[in-house]
Write a structure and sequence with these properties.
Blueprint (H helix, E strand, L loop, with lengths): L2 H15 L3 H12 L3 H15 L7 E3 L5 E5 L8 H5 L5 H9 L3 H11 L17 H7 L5 H21 L4 E13 L2 E11 L6 E6 L4 E6 L7 H14 L9 E6 L3
Antiparallel strand pairs: 1-2, 3-4, 3-7, 4-5, 5-6
Helix pairs in contact: 1-3, 2-3, 6-8, 7-8
């Protein structure tokens, strides 16, 4: 079973059974014969995929350019599990109100969530990018997707500014190919979407990652962002590496 299927498998278990994170991790580890630490990493990635980070991981052509095909599938904010709770609800609502009407509609319709009451509908009820393009006349599906991405990034930045979240902004600097497959890549990352960029080199052949430069040259806080970046990129299939994205998380 490849990593993508493992992430989707534990995501289904977590979202459909209603069990706690600890119970899901333990059950999945026993079922798949892996360590609980590994299972927890898969669940973390699954939550990232449903929250902010790889909302926009898209397929790439042979030159590494994004084709626009959504390959993450479960690209919705999981407000109920991650944000919509007593401590974060006020921050989310305040940030949401700073968005334009169009940005608010994009987020609510795409994620099947009502920001007024906090109700999260089944994932099957969310609007496709084609649906959103029809709602906003004059737009195409790709245009609606780009607008949605910008809305997500704007909301994330507002939540980071409010201290409700941490986020690492990533951009791919270069890739190295071997037999048409990505063998290595260099990513720059920015801690909390601000300040000087750090740099990380990934070797997918050996399965290693090297922090070339810490963001802000900070050996304390920035290191946590670098570790999050490494953990996230390592779980992706090489063919699904994003050209840019934002990884958001709560706490350290």
């Amino acid at each position: 079973m490849d990593e993508y299927k493992r992430v989707r498998g534990i995501a289904w278990l977590y979202n459909e059974t209603g069990k706690s994170k600890g119970e899901v991790v333990s059950e999945y580890a026993k079922k798949e014969g892996c360590s609980e630490e590994t299972a927890e990493q898969y669940l973390t990635v699954a939550q990232f995929n449903r929250s902010r980070v790889s909302l926009y991981v898209t397929a790439q052509d042979k030159d590494g350019e994004e084709t626009g095909e959504d390959v993450t599938r479960d690209d919705s904010w999981d407000y109920a599990a991650i944000l919509w709770n007593g401590t974060q609800a006020a921050a989310v609502q305040a940030a949401f109100e700073k968005l334009t009407y169009r940005e608010q509609r994009l987020l609510e319709e795409r994620n099947a969530v009502c920001m007024t009451c906090g109700r999260v509908s089944p994932i099957s009820e969310r609007k496709t990018f084609e649906d959103l393009a029809v709602m906003f006349e004059g737009s195409t599906a790709s245009g609606a997707e780009r607008a949605y991405r910008k809305a997500v990034e704007k909301l994330t930045a507002l939540l980071v500014e409010a201290g409700a979240l941490h986020a690492a902004r990533l951009k791919r600097e270069s890739v190295k190919r071997a037999k048409k497959k990505i063998a290595a890549a260099v990513y720059e990352y920015q801690a909390d979407c601000d300040g000087e960029w750090g740099k990380i080199h990934f070797d997918f052949v050996s399965g290693t990652a090297e922090i070339v430069r810490l963001a802000e040259w900070d050996t304390m806080n920035s290191h946590a962002f670098a570790e999050r970046t490494i953990r996230y990129i390592r779980t992706l299939l090489e063919s699904c590496l994003p050209a840019s994205t934002v990884i958001a998380f709560e706490g350290w």
